[in-house]
Design brief:
The chain is of the alpha/beta class. The protein has two domains: 102 residues, Urease, subunit C, domain 1; 306 residues, Metal-dependent hydrolases (TIM Barrel, Alpha-Beta Barrel). The chain is built from 13 helices and 16 strands. Helix 4 links the parallel strand 9 and strand 10. Helix 4 packs across helix 6, helix 6 packs parallel to helix 7 and helix 7 runs parallel beside helix 10. The longest helix has 17 residues. It is globular and about 65 Å long.
Length: 423
């Protein structure tokens, strides 16, 4: 048992907040109340005076690179990074090697996840080999444990095939998450076509590459009734398209990453390849529209797109270096620093975007604090400063290294077990 005393609790699902004690037994919360007495028997007591107690965070978009690229990250080190960042549940993307287009690879990923201490879910691919030619056996993969479907990393360009996939996902009642970038419109990915690409003397990636596919796929979502998630939105126009789709009652969702609500294309000049990602960082106007989407509920999920790479890879010239940054260990602090402290969101709203909403998308029993609910909790010092750099991840490719951020995860508890404690 664990008894957490004197903390300030926020349950983003119900909106309940206040100073409460929380008692856990095994993997469930058994009591929430004022001035709870320490029960008889073995019980660890945590004094959370001055700390915020919240549900464990949920990230529905991570790359743990296993199988295929363990030198970048594996499921074990990815889970350590998640725990340090306050995440107790994650959904792995399927662009591994081999990809998760078969039951054997899915079983490998899920089995490895069971030994990590956090809850590891996995998407399976939409198409075989991520080649966009034929669908995976979606029903069999869902039965084998796939939490959803995604070819994240590439877009599904065949509209007829994607519509069929959405219809199947709707029947299976699982989400389908989409990477919206039309490769035919992109000369050099990872860099916004604008001031950033001009400074490098390349054409870059235009906003239309995202907008055109987002418009197509929101239309397909309306036609099929599928639960569709637009991943890592980068363009203002995509936010507006999503807003209109939601007004029609379409079952659609949108992700914002911390790097897209924090940085703009100017970061490429300062951080080089550390600010290269797909889709790219765009203009200040795009960044502010993403924030507006988070504020008004158009964008209902914050996800990290945690994308580890080796130092050698990121040291290549920017046009050759791979896209992507790590994000699990900086996401919460960036949310507090950029969104809460600047008055855009309350802490409760931020936690809803990082726990309750993503959990609901993937039908997880997570993202809330209630008696009988899961004993997945984090303790946060919202006043503490943190300087990213000593990463639990195997990778360190982040433009936020050395920044001064607000908010530090002090403890992470998953299934009633403490899996991380700050030094």
């Amino acid at each position: 048992m664990i008894l957490i005393k004197n903390g300030y609790m926020i349950d983003p699902k119900s909106g309940r907040d206040g100073k409460y004690d929380i008692l856990t037994r095994e993997d469930r919360i058994v009591k929430i109340g004022k001035n709870l007495e320490t029960p008889k028997g073995r019980c660890s007591v945590i004094d959370a005076e001055g700390l915020l107690v919240a549900p464990g965070l949920v990230d529905v978009h991570v790359h743990f690179r296993d199988p295929g690229f363990p030198q970048k990250e594996d499921i074990s080190t990815g889970a350590l990074a998640a725990a340090k960042g306050g995440f107790t549940s994650v959904v792995m993307m399927a662009n591994t090697k081999p990809p998760v287009d078969n039951e054997e690879t899915l079983a490998y990923v899920l089995d490895r996840g069971k030994s990590t201490g956090i809850h590891v879910y996995a998407c399976a691919n939409v198409t075989m080999g991520m080649k966009g030619k034929s669908l995976t056996p979606m029903a069999r993969l869902a039965k084998a444990g796939a939490a959803g479907f995604s070819d994240d990393g590439v877009a599904v360009m065949d509209e007829t095939l994607l519509k069929k996939a959405m219809q199947e996902a709707a029947v299976l009642d699982v989400p389908i998450s989409l990477h919206e970038e039309d490769p035919a419109l992109i000369s050099q990915n990872g860099i916004h076509q604008g001031e950033a690409s001009a400074a490098l003397g390349i054409e870059g990636s235009p906003r239309e590459a995202e907008i055109t596919l987002a418009e197509r796929d929101l239309k397909l979502a309306l036609e099929t009734g599928a639960s569709v998630n637009l991943q890592h939105i980068s363009a203002a126009e995509t936010v507006e398209l999503l807003r209109r789709a939601k007004e029609k009652g379409t079952n659609v969702h949108g992700e914002a990453t911390p790097h897209h609500f924090t940085l703009t294309q100017e970061a490429v000049r300062e951080y080089g390849a550390m600010a290269k990602m797909n889709p790219p960082l765009r203009t200040r106007e795009d960044r502010m529209e993403i924030i507006r989407g988070l504020v008004d509920g158009t964008i209902d999920i914050i996800a990290t797109d945690h994308a580890p790479h080796t130092a050698a890879e990121k040291s290549l010239p920017i046009t050759q270096a791979p896209s992507g940054i790590i994000g699990l260990e900086t996401a919460l602090s960036l949310g507090i620093t950029q969104l809460v402290d600047k008055g855009y969101l309350t802490m409760c709203r931020l936690l809803r975007l990082m726990s309750t909403n993503p959990a609901a998308l993937y039908h997880m029993d997570a993202g809330y604090l209630e008696e009988g609910g899961p004993a997945d909790l984090i303790l946060i010092d919202t006043y503490a400063s943190v300087t990213p750099g000593d990463y639990a991840s195997r990778a360190s490719n982040s433009p936020f290294t050395g920044w001064s951020l607000q908010g530090k995860v002090m403890r992470t508890i998953a299934s009633g077990r403490e899996i991380y404690r700050a030094k």
